[in-house]
Amino acid sequence: RFIIDGLSALTESPTKTLAVALSYLDRLLKKSKFKDGMEKQRKKVCMLIQKENLRKLFAVLLLLATKFLDDAVKVNSAFCRIAGLGIPAEALNILELIVAFLLDFRFTVSNYEFAKMVDAALQLTLCIPV
Fold it and tell me: Cβ contacts of residue 77 below 8 Å, gap of 6+?
């Protein structure tokens, strides 16, 4: 629900930001299935994707997408407040760094990946009651 309510306050382009964040999530989900030589990263990804962490994880993905796409970005403490995370900005900073490492600091999204995720983002926003 915070995705719809708070996203326009956090970013210049909510649909693009949501699409890029979904792309990052897709990368993490794929990484959680790796077996060969990536066991430490796979375990970290699997811990983040647990049910009790999903809201925080998705907020971090939105934050990273916002920082990648927008010129003017809210500071992390404002992001915590607007997203209703209930965690201190310091905790968000640590989560942001962990996720950035898990994404290998690869924040660019291909045109194909972006188009696929824009469709998913639009479907998501249509399915969530306002």
Answer: 89
CA distance 4 to 48: 22
The answer, yes or no, to whether residue 74 has pLDDT greater than 90, is no
H-helix or E-strand spanning residue 121: helix 111-127
In this prediction, residue 91 carries a pLDDT of 84
Q: Give the H or E element holding residue 93.
A: helix 89-102
Nearest Cα residue to 23 out of 52, 66, 69, 65: 65
Number of neighbours of residue 26 by Cβ within 10 angstroms: 15
Distance CA 130, CA 122 (A): 14
**5-24 tens-digit pLDDT:** 666 667 777 778 888 988 99
Q: Which two tokens stand for residue 98?
A: 């962990």
Question: pTM (2 decimals)?
Answer: 0.77
What b-and-e string marks burial along 68-92, b requiring 16 or more CB atoms within 10 Å of the CB?
bbeeebbebeebbebbebeeebeeb
- In the chain, which ranges are E strands? none
